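Q: What structure does this chain adopt?
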Amino acid sequence: MIMSRGHKIFNLLNVIVLGLIGLSMILPLIHIIAQSFSNNVAINTGNVSFWPVGFTVGSYKIILMDPTIWIGFRNSVIITVFGTLINLFMTSTLAYALSRPEYLFRKTILIFIMFTLIFSAPLIPNYLLIKQLGLLDTLWALMLPMAISAFNLFVMRSFFLNLPVELMDSGKIDGCGEFRLMWSIVLPLTKPAMATMGIIYAVAHWNRYSEAVFYINHREWIPLQVRLREIVFTDQFGQSDVSSELMMFLSPEGIKMAVIVVATLPIMLVYPFLQKHFIQGMMVGSIKS
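A:
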């Protein structure tokens, strides 16, 4: 197919605009990475742009020697992995139930769920609830109260509603119950939706900060984002004899940038493994007309 001159100009403008938007997003990250590998003289004099000056890995050595970083990293990984699994299980099961026309009171339940999109519970009632449930100073306080997002629930439900009724009927004819129908037929066809929800939930859990400040007092259970905030805003670095020697040749700004890289990189590495599910057709190969 031969494209017209207008189409070529339109495609060129799309490439330019999207390229500029992409650069505006990735250049700050490149600058942060460059600072994390630069020495104190280059950072303090403002000579670092998008390439390390006076290359050094001392900032990362400071981080690796700080046990609180590893504690926060461990907690964030636990919260992200198990929290996301809880989210996907709870969201998919409720969304499936609310998508089935034979289930009673589904419209009433949907109205109550929609109500939470408009009005959210205040902090004090939430805190009292967490306290009554005995979840204070536990990682469960950062996972169970956020088990279902109303917005994600409606998105997941829309995926289930788009599945052909004939597909459900064929499963029931083959003797599948509701649980077998969901786990063996419905969920495999909704991998794009599950991948999308998984990314959204995982990023939210990895960046969990305010809830940790409110519900977690014990230093053993703080997530990485709380530790990151302490380093960025209060310069509370790990203290040791080796770190004291390194600090003489490093800039606090470089250490802060290194912590930001460490806190950002893991969740960024997850995306490529789920990216293919965003571009796959949800119904490809599921039924034949």
